[in-house]
């Protein structure tokens, strides 16, 4: 019977930890831009410029 109370306490602490991490992520702005990351692969990178000067 004691193990049930122990497991309930551990699960509540774990749930509070996940909830705290969720609140931290929302307050720090990690969920602000949902469109750009999915389109970033489609955007072309600039071609690197090379100089032909001898060293």
UniProtKB/TrEMBL annotation:
It comes from the Bacteria. NCBIfam families: ccoS. This is Cbb3-type cytochrome oxidase maturation protein. InterPro entries: Cyt_oxidase_maturation_cbb3 (IPR004714). It comes from Larkinella arboricola. Keywords: Membrane, Transmembrane, Transmembrane helix. The chain crosses the membrane at residues 6-25. The keyword Transmembrane applies. It holds the Pfam family FixS. The keyword Membrane applies.
């Amino acid at each position: 019977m004691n193990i049930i109370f122990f497991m309930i306490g551990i699960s509540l602490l774990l749930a509070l930890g996940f909830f705290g991490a969720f609140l931290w992520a929302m307050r720090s702005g990690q969920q602000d831009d949902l469109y750009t990351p999915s389109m970033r692969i489609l955007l072309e990178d600039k071609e690197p410029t090379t100089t032909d000067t001898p060293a």
